[in-house]
Specification:
By secondary structure, the chain is of the alpha+beta class. Helices cover 44% and strands 19% of the residues. The protein is built from 13 helices and 12 strands. The two termini are 25 Å apart. The structure holds NADPH dihydro-nicotinamide-adenine-dinucleotide phosphate (NDP) and pyrrole-2-carboxylate.
Length: 340
Amino acid sequence: MTGNDTITLSLDEVRKLAERVLTRHGLAPDHATAVAETMVAGERDGCTSHGVYRLIVCAKTLAAGAVAKDAVPEISNPAPSITRVDAKGGYAQLAFQVGLPSLVGNARRNGIAALAINNCIHFAALWPEVERLAEEGLVSLACTPSHAWVAPAGGTRPVFGTNPLAFGWPRPDRPPFIFDFATSAVARGEIELHRRAGKPIPLGWGLDSEGKPTTDAAQAMAGAMQTFGGHKGSALAAMIELIAGPLIGDMTSSESLAADAGRKSSPLGGELIIALDPAGFLGSEAQAHMKRAEALFEAITAQGARLPSQRRYEARERSLKDGVSISAALYSDLQALLEP
Ligand code: NDP
Ligand code: PYC
């Protein structure tokens, strides 16, 4: 359906469009299915910085030869609770699917387990992964570096990636408690969407090339993005560089940007996912203690504050019923990606 400035698509139409664009650019079908699904999820849940707009980024990354289009992820278990998946230069989504059963099995056996994904191209939101683990009854954390675009608090030159951190907590008879955000003030994708729409960005998101605060999206992208929460976001960004970089034998965001060699492709490197099984900590008392967490959520919502993921679940409900609207300009750019 077409409005003046927007096009409404069913989720199935979004999925087909994403798969067609990805396969048209040479991505193998198993990767295309896995990658498209995360874009559908992003669009469906109103997380547009990681929805179908990412097809433009994928097309550029595929055309630059920066991603292995038919990589076969290789799984190993270097220690009893640790799963490693070498993505072999392919997108992270399929590598996650390959590592998931081992991560879940190890967490159930040992109470805590980790999955290190190495050598992957990563452009995706992390909440689909922690949400998937919550479906298994597991608490989890996920993080990944990206490209060095973000200045440390007090500095003016990029060192960190936008380094997202996601957390998932299963809830009895309800969707899980999930948060997932960049440790920069906002994801770079959000700044790019402002640039595309010709909209200014709020102060606090970025600095221009001379280190001065700017409201110009293009200048912030050319200069340096800022961390959220000053020194606190800066420390978390550093932690993510370390635990999803050197700790798992993979790249920091600076190394990823250097490896990109100016191609402007998606980040290359690793991701760390940690899963905790309440039953491993609590045995037969797990359910009773997990129920106690509900009082915490109630104390938040009872005063009119909202839980992270609440907006996303509401958006999901609407999208499942009515489909999603994307701007006519973006739709036209996506159609252009299908041209020979
Ligand atoms: P936001 O700053 O929008 O923060 C998103 C999180 O905060 C969501 O969990 C959101 O819940 C929650 N939230 C927002 N507002 C409120 C509120 N008022 N009260 C309670 N909770 C709130 O997102 P970012 O721009 O930082 O990140 C967007 C996405 O980008 C993430 O999914 C992240 O994984 C992805 N990303 C990926 C990168 C990569 O390298 N792969 C790099 C950087 C980011 P809700 O969804 O319900 O609004
Ligand atoms: O939006 O910051 C971002 C981002 C980086 C890599 C994937 N998304």
